Amino acid sequence: MIQTKDVPKDVIEKRKEKILALQESGVELFPNDYRASHTVQDIQPLVEGKTGDISQDFSVSVAGRMMAVNLFGKSAFIRFKDRTGQLQAYIRADKVGASAYAVFKKLDIGDFVGMTGGLFQTKTGEWTLLADSIQLLSKSMRPLPEKFHGLKDPEKRYRQRYLDLIMNGDVRELFVNRSKMIQAIRTFLLNRDFLEVETPMMQPLPGGADARPFKTYHNSLNMDLFLRIAPELYLKRLITGGFERVFEINRNFRNEGISTRHNPEFTMLEFYQAYATYEDLMMMTEEMFRAVAFQVTGSAQIVYQGETIDFGETWRRMPMLESLEKIAGVDPALFDSREKLLNFAETKGVSFGSQSGEIGIGKIMTKLFDVLVEPNLIQPTFITTYPIEVSPLSRRNSRQPEFADRFELFIAGREIANGFSELNDPEDQKNRFVEQLNHKEPGDETPHMIDEDYITALEYGMPPTAGEGIGIDRLAMLLTDSPSIRDVILFPHMKPTEKS
């Protein structure tokens, strides 16, 4: 809830008095019959190469929100903005008429107005609309934040994103760039013969990832449903059905913690390609990220939190065990002994508590990687050859069956993408589901369930396939130099505030 105490009571009362005066004089506060002929951006080509006063040459109709007003008796300069930019306008009583000017003087910063007129240059060379008419289009009942201080408080910016967008042009540009990023990804895949599809957001079984779901209940079907934690198992059903290249830009929901990198509702890209391997997807991912970076920033190099990230070079590829040895300094002899590796983990402050007696060597290695290696992967790096123990949906490596044909992409010390050659052996897949269920750790609230219908789909035969998921929000953070995931989500989830 927006709290009235954010705005002084006397300011609200003054606005109400103006509103009452406008109503009593017959002014409609919220008309719906105005049509603009031009945006601010459209005006630029009209004045290209011209100087002085061209107000007699043509007339434009514009509309926007008033952001500043400077009154000079019977004239005023105002600054207004629409979706494309800002423009100055000059309002004169002798041009718009005495009654219209009297109404204008009762308007406030934040009000929407429509104006018609020609253009001229001021003494400073700024192109300005010389209004022949001005009309109130929508009355603002609350004042905007004071322009010199703007809206700086992050808490308020996230809770009242509409104010953030009004006051902070760089925030608006950030979300424009996020949209460009998604469109570039979509175009990249469509140009490679992928089909965009939609899969259920409410599912009878939560699957495709190891996460705690949100649970709901459907009255007519008399059954529990789960908000999806991933679309993976449905997209692979489509591969079985003959759609050999599919993708979905989807909303996922995970009932877990909130941080600068995690929001309970987030956006993912998942795509699957038949007759491809995880190595093919690594090459495709490099191409995709370069194309998207050029589309959004105009360069294959970006700066994120002071670090220059290069998407243009051939990206590093490194097996997990090698990364633990070279980056974390783990003695490779430890990988042959669960007990020695567990003791080493504890010396590094990596503890598994009461679970240490049950946890496998693959999970120990992965946890060590998360703590000791991941934060050091600044430039784009593919970590490959994950333990099969932590890869229940991945194909086993033919030469090293204890490892999976899988990669994760890390940039700026965080995971951005996860991909692998898919497991299409139904017996192996069912056995891994059962093993995962049998080895559920104490206190684990993740509802591991066996999706029998997915096993049935695999029994009809799925071609050799590779699939990948990319965190759209985290990629947006990188491309817009945003430190928190809340900066790139229009309406991030927040704890409720007390009502005023």
What does this structure look like?
This protein is α+β, with helices and mostly antiparallel strands and 500 residues long. It folds into two domains: 4-144, Nucleic acid-binding proteins (OB fold (Dihydrolipoamide Acetyltransferase, E2P), Beta Barrel); 166-327 and 377-488, BirA Bifunctional Protein, domain 2. It contains 15 helices and 18 strands. The chain has helices at 9-24, 40-47, 93-96, 98-104, 154-159, 161-167, 169-190, 232-240, 278-297, 320-326, 338-347, 361-373, 426-438, 452-459, 472-480, and strands at residues 60-72, 75-82, 85-92, 112-121, 127-138, 195-196, 202-203, 215-218, 223-227, 245-253, 265-274, 301-304, 307-310, 316-319, 381-387, 403-411, 414-421, 465-471. The strands form four sheets. The chain has an eight-stranded mixed beta sheet, with helices on both faces. Strands 1-2-3-5-4 form a five-stranded mixed β-barrel. Strand 4 (112-121) and strand 5 (127-138) form a beta hairpin. Helix 10 (320-326) packs across helix 12 and helix 13 (426-438) runs antiparallel to helix 14.
